[in-house]
Fold this protein.
Amino acid sequence: MSTDHQRAREALGARLRELRAGVSGRELAARLGWTQSKVSKLETGRQTATPADLAAWAEATGQPAAAAELRSRLDGLESHTRSWRRQLRAGHRPVQDTLLVEYERSTTLRAWQGSMVVGLLQTPDYARAVFHRYQDLHQSVRDVDDAVRARVRRQELLYQPGRVFHIVMWEPALYAGVCAPHVLAAQLDRLGGVVGLDTVRLGIVPPGAQVPVPPANSFWLYDERLAIAEDWHAELWLDDLESLALYRRVWDGLASAALYGAAAHRLLARARASLAV
């Protein structure tokens, strides 16, 4: 969890403690039907409150008007760390729609992906397999077909002038068995066709390449205004200058180690030849 996120959560907890003035933690827990440990965790920033938790807290402390302020604090906290648990309450489709807005607002997009084929270049069958994996992991709403359609629609941006996509992938991502071999074969063929697009510069980093930092979590950079990094539990939406500069340095370093054009085609052909289909 990021330091900024934890500080914001602790600040929210301190505000909850202020609202509880004159009421013991044990008494408040009884009013809410919670355990006393939950009250303690929320006040010390060891647990993130839900909107329902905050509304109940404001009501139970006799200050219902504070609910809007508490929700605003929570929204500010979540604007940087967006847990998958919360984002996926309505399924993967709304997440894809939210990302489309950021794509449409941007003209220069940069991506690093080290674990699988980047979403913007996925075939429908490959995307379907990936969504199934993540829905199983997060036990989220089953809306695979809607999510796939939303992802494929976003790919229309690849063919619109005015945007440039600089995408760098780690070669092992080409071999990741997140789908059936015949689906992966079609996906690799798709990547081969992307290499020649005017709007896309696709680079592939071979495992033996010298890299300035270890290949780690995937992320996107939207112009110079936003970085979105993925982890197992959440996405980080970062817009402060220091974080943006850091992620740009990481991307520049990994991009400098990538192979492009004919050399990238050879890596794709090697991966394709490894499949017995």
About this structure: The mean pLDDT is 92.
